[in-house]
Amino acid sequence: MASTPKLHYLEDRWDEAVASTLDPAELLCYRSNLLGSDLRLTNFGGGNTSSKLEEIDPLDGELKTVLWVKGSGGDLGSIKRSGFATLYLDKVLALTKSYKGVEREDEIVAMYSLCTFGNNPVAASIDTPLHGFLPFPHVDHLHPDWGIALAASANGREKMEEFNTRFGHKLVWLPWQRPGFELAMMLKRGVEEVPGCDGVVLGGHGLFTWGQTQRESYLNTITIVDQLGQFVLEHGAKKGVSFGGVKHTSHEDRQAIALKLMPLLRGRASAKQRVIGSFTDAPDVLAFINSHSAQKLAHLGTSCPDHFIRTKIRPLFVDWDPKTDAAGLEAKVDEALATYRKEYAEYYNAHALKDSPAMRDASPTVVLVPGVGMFSFGKNKAESRITGEFYINAIHVMEGAGGMDEGSCPPVLPQSGHAAPTSAFSLHENYVALPPREAFRI
Amino acid sequence: MLVVGGASGIGRETVLLAAERGAHIVVADLSVDAAQKVADEAKKIGGAECAVAVAIDIRKRETIREALKAAVTAFGGIDILINTAAMFPSSPDGIITDAQWAITLEVNVTGNYLLTDEAEKVFKTQGLPSSIVLTSSANAVVPKRGTEAYDVSKAALSHLVRELAVTYSPLIRVNGISPATVVKGSTMFPRDRVKASLAKYNIAFEESQTDDELRNSLAMFYAKRTLTHVPIDPKDCAEAILFVGGPRAPVTTGHLIPVDGGLTEAYLR
Question: Which of A334, A381, A383 to mutate to test the interface with B (most CBs of B within 10 A)?
Fold first, then answer.
């Protein structure tokens, strides 16, 4: 970029005085911590970063290119040097010779540990080859709400081209493919086919950006995400109405109702194991749950794999009119829960294979009550809180996609591809949810 | 879990042990500042989000309700209610006033009833197997002179445990612990009480001795009266509370676990 575009929402927090004192691996940590500490850039624990660094191989004393990539688990905002996996890049690239195609892509995962550089016990994550096969020294893969809003829009590809023109970018669109070696191959081909591209939108999932230096990667990432924010929010402001408009108003006594309802919901959600609960009636949650489209959108489920892992296939939506007596809520909850559990079992039975793990607990982790708020559950307080935060990410994605709705839908969805045809996806108001079969396979 | 009396003594040790074992804890006490200090200690052990502090006065239903609301707000509900809060009436001359009698029964008996009555509503709404542990005393069983108000209150509390176990079954188990005198860390051993006890037992002491030195003398006297000959530590009581209140005693209810060094058997000898 000729000059650094002005950021409207994000801040450039890079401090060269700090960065200049760091060695390449610590600089990767620094970049990762900056990116991960801003939840507008990525959800907690979501995304990963990498750098391809030259290091002396302890085995033969020669200089090798080592892929440093965020290890499995962990959070970018707090990651330290010891949280990164290190792999011989040439060995990762050579895995194409062992790759037996998408039907057997899970088999290649066992090979990642064989590519380990040094005595590093950190397990390589499923996204490792995605970073390896992108031919750029420093790569960022993030899940910004604004980015996923675009990635989960029925007109997302068309809107991406509009974005490219408006902001002078050359982002590439890839259809949905579950994270793994096949997606790495698609990324490799995608950037080869569009020389000079400066980012990739993964349909239904997230964003890849990069740079020749750590600083350039960071700046490119925050700039593109900020511009995506400008683009998505401008569309939303122009549209004026979110989620099909307001259906309910928030109950005056919603805090008191929530206090009474919480132990009941916790009890129901603890059918298989005890969970801890959290509650929020934040404005963006209320705006969603009080809307005409809330029940329909909630039933579609989330799009980004990271969101889905915590929120499950969908939240429990309690179809209660806040203008009626709160005494009727318990019956409504139990009615909704019976349907939820039935549908969960149907979803499991429809997609489980012989070697699939046993059905997870069919209790919801997110419960939405119009007029009141969102209840979220997890095995500890942090998990319950983060699960709620992830659903708020999902709300932002649905809102962003809805804001770009222009009333028409392409006959072939841009998220569709080898992994899932258009018919496998469900959508409402321009928001495209992950197909249940794909969600099951994650 | 909700630990009432969690700011000191047995309650504090229960909070800290529970934090080690991964519990989420509401630390409730008359002094919210003292409760907060223990909650902060628990967080260093169990993580930044594992504990909160709240004020409570078990004589007042409204504060009990507020403490339960704090538990629901923080963690979604409660699985175990533990009360270690109690009072021991004392005076320099050993004579207990009518007012002291009344407040002893109010705190040690009625307070426990109010606490369990309010908590039962949360337990019932949750519909999950739950548990209550109250703190009685070896004094409830072993008669002696000079501490009638306290001892009678603990005898009543022991029977409350048995009756509530019946009333709240099958959803809620109710148990208690009956420690012999726990001197260490207890708020029930102010200097004047310790001196009165030492005098009662003809144990020599000097006015120049510190509170801790006096407490240690008394604690060693009590210890020698047991079979195990070691002072009862608040940690011993915490272990018993978490055992009988937790998931490893799923079919124990209506019982009081002695944590007394074999005191009653020592007396029979």
Answer: A381
| Max intra-chain CA distance, chain A | 76
- Cβ of A263 within 8 Å of Cβ of B125? The answer is yes
The closest CB to that of B24, out of A263, A276, A375, belongs to A276
User: How many structural domains is chain B composed of?
Assistant: 1
CATH number at residue B191: 3.40.50.720
Whole-model pTM: value is 0.93
Task: Give the structural domain span for B23.
Answer: 2-265
Tell me whether domains A16-239 and A254-441 share a fold.
yes
- A78 touching B (Cβ < 8 Å): no
Is the domain defined by A254-441 classed in CATH 3.40.225? yes
Q: Is A329 on the interface with B (CB under 8 A)?
A: no
Chain A nearest CA to B175, separation (Å): 21
List the structure tokens of B63: 């504060």
Q: Which residues contact B155 (CB under 8 A, 6 or more apart)?
A: B140, B141
Q: Where are the domains of chain A?
A: 16-239, 254-441
Q: In three state form, how does the secondary structure of A381-411 look? A: HHHHHHHHHHHHHHHHHHHHHHHCCCCCCCC
Question: Would you tell me which residues 120-139 of chain B have a C-beta closer than 8 angstroms to some C-beta of chain A?
Answer: 122, 125-128
Q: Does A381 touch chain B (CB under 8 A)?
A: yes
B150 is annotated as an active-site residue: yes
Q: How many CB pairs under 8 A join A and B?
A: 58
CA distances from A228 to A146, A154, A233 (A): 6, 16, 8
Q: Look at the domain A16-239 and name its fold.
A: L-fuculose-1-phosphate Aldolase (3.40.225)
Element (H or E) spanning A305, and its range? helix A305-311
Q: Read off the tokens for A39.
A: 């939840």
Q: Are B34 and B86 in contact (CB under 8 A)?
A: no
The active-site residue, picked from B113, B150, B168, B267, is B150
> Would the CB atoms of B76 and A260 count as touching at under 8 Å?
no
Contact B122 A263 (CB under 8 A): yes
**Predicted ipTM?**
0.92
Residue B103 identity (one-letter amino acid)? I
Cβ distance B105 to A295 under 8 Å? no
Query: How confident is the prediction along chain A (442 residues), in pLDDT tens digits per residue?
Result: 446 789 999 999 999 999 999 999 999 999 999 999 999 998 888 899 999 999 999 999 999 999 999 998 889 999 999 999 999 999 999 999 999 999 999 999 999 999 999 999 999 999 999 999 999 999 999 999 999 999 999 999 999 999 999 999 999 999 999 999 999 999 999 999 999 999 999 999 999 999 999 999 999 999 999 999 999 999 999 999 999 999 999 999 999 999 999 999 999 999 999 999 999 999 999 999 999 999 999 999 887 777 777 888 899 999 999 999 999 999 999 999 999 999 999 988 888 888 888 887 899 999 999 999 999 999 999 999 999 999 999 999 999 999 999 999 999 999 999 999 999 999 999 999 999 888 887 7
